[in-house]
Amino acid sequence: MVRRLSPSKILVLSFACVIVLGSILLYMPFCRKAPSMAYIDALFTATSAVCVTGLTVIDLGKDLSFWGQLITFFLFEVGGLGIVTFSVFIFYLIGKSPSFATREVIQRTLLPKPRRDFRMILTAVMRYSAFIQLLGAAFLFFVFLKDFEMNQVIFMSIYHAGSAFNNCGFSLFPDSFVRYVDNLGLNLIIMGLIVAGGLGFFTLKEIASKIRGQTFRLSLHTKLVLITTSVLILGGALLFYVFERNNVLRGVGLGTSILASLFQSVTSRTAGFNTVDISKLTNQSLFFLMILMFIGASPGSTGGGIKTTTFAVLFLLVFSRLKGKERVDIFNRTIPEDCVKKAISVTLISWVFIVMILSLILFSTPETDPSLSRHLFIEYFFETISAFGTVGLSTGITPSLGPFQKFMIILMMFAGRVGPLTLAYALTMKEKKVAYTYAEENIMIG
Length: 446
Known about the structure:
Layout: H1 7-27, H2 39-50, H3 60-63, H4 66-81, H5 83-93, H6 100-110, H7 118-144, H8 150-165, H9 184-199, H10 201-211, H11 220-244, H12 254-267, H13 283-295, H14 308-322, E1 329-330, E2 333-334, H15 337-363, H16 370-388, H17 403-427
Antiparallel strand pairs: 1-2
Helix pairs in contact: 1-2, 1-4, 1-6, 1-17, 2-4, 2-17, 4-8, 7-8, 7-9, 7-10, 8-9, 9-12, 10-11, 11-12, 11-13, 11-14, 13-16, 14-15, 15-16, 15-17, 16-17
């Protein structure tokens, strides 16, 4: 039956099945410390973990037992690299060959174009993921060792390293990493893991090959990823510092202010950790964080959003049109028209998802004082963008959402992780050629 499913259906069903299974496990008594938990909260937590979002309606460190926390760890590990990726890797380990449609899903997820050395690429993905996470956990071990007992430090180091690399943002601390805002070691380690997980495995492999001298030049994909990522991180940090220097960064030393600005800029690109109180940020900061969350990480990574390359192609398209050029050129290369069309389509359909879910959340809000409703609008908007970008940053409104609103955010997290990707896959399907075309007729634009 699996062999008859399309790649898009395999992707959607694999995520849905793991989410349901995870929610059932988290709902079990042995997974929680709290006397009771609503199933919607278990479903919300499982969805957030599998979709590597990081939004929570419970306190993971307080409400979940060790087994519950361990289950969330496995959920975001599987969700970050992709359920299908893990499945195919297991197939290879036991000596079986996966279906063509299953291999097609992974090819389109991890690579800009199909390659024959698919099995070697898959092995490299798993190897890089394990190595980077273990390295991050080793560094975090020495950070947490100063504050916690040995038996806690090992699990906390592995958990937070995995959460950071998979761009999940789940933290066992109730305030995320606010307590470590001035800790240089933790900030650099977490930011490094987030960026590594958000670059994409193809980009990581090319960088590693370039360092070893095995690759003569980097591909256009990798160049766009590295440039766009650098610009967004540095630009976001600068704007955050400008908007918050007289707010949450007031009275904070210059070094800590720069560190906090960089961390918030990096984490808003689909990770979800925070070292400052997001609920106290200015509207300007929230607005630019929403832009960064919407753009997200890079293709073939553990992050969400419309992706850095999509944003780069749209920017280059506008720049080319302003110069009167029909084609989109960069670095002596022309970006195919199909890529430009996909970038436009993914961005538009993403906004359709966001508008639909945000509208349903707003319409389900009980009638209150208009001034309060306007205040809730920015929080709901921020929450919806955060869910779509699989980020996990929140102004603190998540636990107070009603059951219907929680379900809408669940759908948004699922759509954010699966929707744009599925659309991109669908657009790569071969077009049906027809023997006729309709007559053209102009319409007024602009």
